Amino acid sequence: MMSAARDGFGQLLLAEWTKLRSVRRWVLALAALVVLSVGFSLFASAGSGTDSNKHPDFVVGPNGRPVADEFQFVHQPLTGDGSVVARVVSQQNSHAWAGAGVMIKDGTRSGSRYAALMVTPKHGVRLSANYEVSRAGRAGGVPRWLRLTRTGNSVTGYESTDGATWHKVGTVDMRGLPPTAEVGLFVSSPPKVVVTRSAGTTSVAEGPTTGTATFDSVRVDGAQATGSAVWQSDRVTQPHAQDTLEGVPDFKRRGGPSTGSTEANGVFTVTGSGEIGPRESPDDPVQAALFGILIGLMVIAAMGVLYMTSEFKRGMIRTTFVASPRRGRVLAAKAVVLGTTAFVLGLVATVVSFRLGLPLLRDGGFAPPAYPTPKLTEWPVLRAVVGTAAFVALIAVFALGVGAILRHSAGAITAVLALVILPAFVAIALPTTGALWLMRLTPAGGFAIQRAKPPSNMLAEAWSAIDPWAGLGVVFAYAVVALALAAWLLRRRDA
User: Fold this and answer.
1) Which of 69, 103, 288, 306 is packed most tightly, with the most Cβ within 10 A?
2) With left for phi above 0 and alpha for psi between -120 and 50, is residue 241 left, alpha or beta?
3) Which H helix or E strand runs over 346?
4) What ranges in 66-204 are assigned the alpha helix state H?
């Protein structure tokens, strides 16, 4: 009875925790995890800079964030409630996300509020609003009838294949849209972007695409609408960077689109270029603020290995197994104690790095409007900060498992660092496909969790192009497999 109590898992956890906090070198290593992570994060933040606010490649949307807003607009004013209706007869397949449809917009200023219902060559009907909302309608392309109806502060989109039976796509909140807005037809066609990676550099070439669509059965309905209103055709434009896209070396914008519109017997032919939607730089201040965790990972990887191998080297593991013969539970207790401690200290390091690094990054140019200030309460930021701490904990557990498998400190540390750190640097020199597979197959992919922005293949860091949860999932799988193999070997080999 007493033996069972001593061998209880709670007792094992207490014993391992006592061992961890009682050994001076472990305490120093854990302190180094925090100090080095924060120190190198601040060093990297202080050395980072950008001039994207001086040479903008965006406009500021209603939410204060950088957006793209460029297209051809055939329009007339509508005061109060009403609808704009048109049939998209044909559409050129200039880009998978080229848009041809109807729009309600606060004038013709790039970056102003809008609601749009469009048909696309590859993604069916879409309802978008204010550069944030994007809702899918039914699949299929042209011909397609489209209708936008404004009722107070709401705009509702409908689509039809015959002009008689209408299907609701969705309703968007348009508070802030003035009583008199511009309504009409639009055509957009996003630029084609080609990313090339080789010899440690990332080159991005962007060239405009131009799309053409024809419309008929165009009308504007409403109490304030006038059937005789003159249609105006304007190209909504935005500034363009001259030579560089922020954060990407060797970026070039090529060519210039020719756009406009014609009308004959009620049939409109509209040619447009550009895109409508978010346009934030792929550079991520949150990721930059957490860069120093790379050094912390080296520390915790070495400690995770030594936390296991030192007991084998000194023969202490035999005493441990005599006191607790169930070796798998001993390994599990070590993993829980080390993993939990690494997570807590990793979280301290990430929060401090984030809080102290952001002001340094803002001083270097990572400031609004090009870089809206990230807040810890925002989910993508919170996920990056907490997820990075989880990354640290998983590497600690993985290193513990490798130490138990190899039982050789130098070899185990080398193996862990070769799998976690080395691929992150090797991938920079690989072509895109090879770099992505290396990130998906090694624990180095866990660095993706540090990003608060969506994945992007436009940066040198290959892990920036994979999904954050997928990257962390790879690390979790490595940790589980290492622990499982270590537990199996512990039961079959002499201590």
Assistant:
1) 103
2) beta
3) helix 327-363
4) none
